[in-house]
Specification:
By secondary structure, the chain is an alpha/beta fold. The protein is built from 14 helices and 24 strands. It has three domains: about 1-145 and about 280-345, 3-Layer(bba) Sandwich (FAD/NAD(P)-binding domain), CATH 3.50.50; about 165-275, FAD/NAD(P)-binding domain (3-Layer(bba) Sandwich); about 350-465, 2-Layer Sandwich (Enolase-like, domain 1). The termini are far apart.
Length: about 475
């Protein structure tokens, strides 16, 4: 059978691409090496981590937060096996939902490792070694990413056993709470998974190469976030590099030193999480043999997601841009529409990012540092959640909203939030920016009272230096 499109990879980018293509009338197939659909995000990433973040938050609230609200409970007891079952059930519901959608849209699924044999030909090798070849007019590569390796002071890769030295995969499947957890990397994955285990009783120490936490986020937000995490028990060693991890039967010793030079220090750990970022996953795809050009490990594409080889496209973590599931989804829709003769497009200036700690961190658009580096004349408005009525009622007063607007046109260039519900609140800013809205537009839009969203309005009012405290 010849297909109009074969998608390699069934993560958020891949399955959304396949479904949109099928909706537009293209005969579509999808290739997935796992036994279940959904890629890293649904199986061992976004979804299971959010399930554990929510469950651990409920445990921490029962232990420390409910008494102040007049809800008196016995000291809670952790049933980690039940919490992990909640995570697994959540994953199962999501991957089964994707399987249903693929079947509903009459998309043929092939389980096995996909490889581009030539333009228009994809081989699929199943777990039993059996290989079949699919013919197609177009190929979309959506194979996602994998954890980036960490090298020690000698340049050797620190081995991950998922028992003591963990990637994010192992950190989502621990059978007991580590007394001492060392996290290497203060990015999104490190602080999220560190939060899970800190809430459940672990002492979390983070070692970060850069002199700040949350690289890429607004520096003011990141600085305040660090202080909040420290109040929650986190310890940070910034501008520090790990030079070695020596494991034993029941733990490890982590050696680190200042990046600028200096004496080494040693941390004892029951578990070590390597959270130093992710790299594009292109192994076994036959890209070199097919002649597909890569740059720094990422597949090079043009403005229409096309590689240098006719009929071969790529989206998501394997191409330029932030490694975010929703960015991959938008690219999947866009490339499917392009292949169907429509005008698919992604606005990369309005891709939100969220850190699902408590409080959450969310952002969209330019940071204040970026705007200044680009020479933008800007006006900045801020509003603290400590002055928001709903936040006070919820006892969630940490953080603030920050709106960055063009000083001349008032067009909103970026919004940054540290606070409860930030991941939901940022959608308002994304919609506003998608339609080139101004701070005045947000300020004059009626927001329900009392809600956390009023902090968005107040920050927009503060751009014009006229907030009305709630």
């Amino acid at each position: 059978m010849t297909y109009d499109l074969v998608v390699i990879g069934s993560g958020p980018g891949g399955y959304v691409c396949a479904i949109r293509a099928a909706q537009l009338g293209l005969k579509t197939a999808i290739v997935e090496k796992r036994a279940t659909f959904g890629g890293t995000c649904l199986n061992i990433g976004c979804i299971p981590s959010k399930a554990l973040l929510h469950a651990s938050h409920m445990f921490a609230e029962a232990a420390h937060g409910l008494g102040a609200l007049g809800v008196v409970v016995e000291p809670p007891r952790l049933d980690l096996a039940a919490m992990m079952k909640h995570k697994d059930d959540t994953v199962g519901a999501n991957v089964n939902g994707v399987a249903f959608l693929l079947k509903k849209n009459k998309i043929d699924a092939f389980i096995g490792a996909g490889r581009i044999e030539a333009p228009g030909k994809v081989s699929v090798t199943a777990a039993d070694g059996q290989t079949r070849t699919i013919e197609t007019k177009n190929i979309v590569i959506a194979t996602g990413s994998a954890p980036a390796p960490l090298r020690d002071g000698k340049g050797d890769v620190i081995a991950i056993d998922e028992k003591i030295v963990l990637s994010s995969t192992g950190a989502l499947a621990l059978e007991k709470v580590p007394e001492k957890l060392v996290v290497v990397g203060a990015g999104v994955i490190g602080v999220e998974l560190g939060s899970v285990w800190a809430r459940l009783g672990a002492k979390v120490t983070v070692v970060e190469f850069l002199p700040r936490v949350l690289p890429g986020f607004d520096s003011e937000v990141a600085s305040r976030f660090q202080k909040v995490m420290e109040k929650q028990g986190f310890t940070f060693h910034l501008a520090s590099k790990v030079t070695g991890v020596e494991r034993s039967a029941d733990g490890a010793k982590v050696t680190f030193a200042p990046v600028a030079g200096g004496d080494e220090s040693v941390l004892d750990a029951d578990a070590v999480l390597i959270a130093t970022g992710r790299i594009p996953y292109t192994d076994g795809l036959g890209l070199a043999e097919a002649g597909v050009v890569l740059e720094r490990g990422r597949i090079v594409i043009d403005a229409h997601f096309a590689t240098n080889i006719g009929g071969v496209y790529a989206i998501g973590d394997v191409v330029r841009g932030p490694m975010l599931a929703h960015k991959a989804e938008d690219e999947g829709v866009a490339v499917a529409e392009i292949l169907a003769g429509q005008a698919g497009h992604v606005n990369y200036n309005v891709i939100p990012g969220v850190v699902y700690t408590l409080p959450e961190v969310a952002c969209v658009g330019l940071t204040e540092d970026d705007a200044k580096a680009e020479g933008q004349a800007i006006a900045v408005g801020k509003f603290p959640f400590s002055a928001n009525g709903r936040a006070r009622a919820m006892r969630e007063t940490d953080g603030f909203v920050k709106v960055i607007a063009d000083a001349k046109t008032d067009r909103v260039l970026g919004v940054h939030i540290l606070g409860a519900g930030a991941g939901e609140l940022i959608a308002e800013a994304a919609i506003l920016m998608e339609f080139s809205g101004s701070a005045e537009d947000m300020a004059r839009t009626c927001h329900a009272h009392p809600t956390l969203s009023e902090a968005m309005k107040e920050a927009a009012l503060a751009v014009a230096k006229r907030p009305i405290h709630i």
